[in-house]
Fold each of these.
Amino acid sequence: MKKKLKITFNSPVVLTFIFVSFIAMILAYATGGLTNTILFVTYHSSLKSPLTYLRFFTHVLGHAGWDHYIGNTMYLLLLGPMLEEKYGSKLLIWVIAITALITSVTNYIIFPSIALCGASGVVFAFILLTSFTSFKSGELPITFILVVVVFLGQQVYEGLFLEDNISNLSHILGGVVGSVVGYKFNAK
């Protein structure tokens, strides 16, 4: 007798993140970008406004357009389920929240005239965290070294020589978060 094939919600944090980001994209288009401005883009706004603090976390849910959303979503879908299975949903929520907070506060302080949105920092946290999946105490995987060298090299190059509205600093900070979490939780 054949087993029935069933669809499973195998990665609740990643899938929820992607679905909420999708809703944010729909809302942004429906409101001409107003919802992004209010909820899903962090920028140098008054620290007296509670929305400023909310946007420090929710900016990772907003995206500048469909290409931006789809690019981030593909990486999240490729890397997220494996990470959620290895580290658990709770840790992945923390990685997303910490990455969102660090990237937004840094952007707020260093680049006060630049708005920030998108999950690219989270994607890069996932990329570096993934390179630690086979990490053993006392070892440093060559894959991690290569990812860091290629990743940092690309981000530094693009940050210095390209003007493309991409926050390379967010990518680097996300990578640092992923590296620190990966090392901490795999060194045991």
Amino acid sequence: MAGFTDRLLRAAKLDVTVYEEVEADKEAISQAMGVVVLSSVAAGIGTGLAAGFVSIIAGVIVSLLAWYVWAYLTYIIGTKVLPEPRTHADIGQLLRSTGFSSSPGLIRIVGVFPGLTDLAFLVAGIWMLIAMVVAVRQALDYTSTLRAVGVCLIGWVVQSIILAVFLALASPPRSGIVL
């Protein structure tokens, strides 16, 4: 099993070989989960810890849920709806590959410095999206980057709708009566 830090850095550098490596390494699921958790914690710290420890923990939980949902949707869309002739993947391969695509999110910790929060989050968001496309392209054995972009975009839209509905259902009901 390759070193975690090495894989983390190579994934952030968009090294396609690391995405192939974690796709094939069934033991890398804990490393992929670790990347998602670290990226989420970096985001929490990068916002200046204004919301507190409980919010960081909630952010980690939501990030893990979003990672799983997006990977599952990517698996369904990429293997059942928009496969290429060479496409062969399972959910574990997508989870491992897409988990490592969160590695650029570690730079969000820089947001703790005044004036850098928005820039750090913008750069991380774009970089993570590009890494997601690379991860999906490799995990689904696509020859077309455009197809990987489409799968990621469709999955993101569906995931956003699912999470919005979930959050709406999970929030307490509002009453028009004020006491």
Amino acid sequence: MKITLFTLLAIFVIMQFILVEKTNPQYDKSKEFVFPSHIEPMIKSACYDCHSYDTVWPWYSAIAPMSYSISKNVNHGRDALNFSIWEEYDDEKKHKKMKEIFRAVYASMPLDDYIRFHPEADLTKEQRAEIRTWAKEIIDAKEASASK
């Protein structure tokens, strides 16, 4: 039993020396998504840590194995959708991303793991509906202009 505990402790200590990248790259603010004032607070509190370059890295993001999970989620989130570089997306990609926002805010975002540590990011049903209505208006306007 002592050998097992010592081995686990040693592994935990060694893990602390395997650092992960935690970055908030500089970016051109003019390329950031500009949200309507009623949508912005919801998106920023529920989405920005993983879907922008304005991530707030909590203290526990420096402790393995949490650091590995958090870094992976942020990198994956930025790859999927990054509000900091929205204007670098072409119109087709923006349209696709809005459809993803429409679906994800209802079904899977923010992630349960994130909400566990950030309960303030949990969107109410009403907030989710408000975001979906906003996204749907943008989607419908784009599709209407494309059909003309």
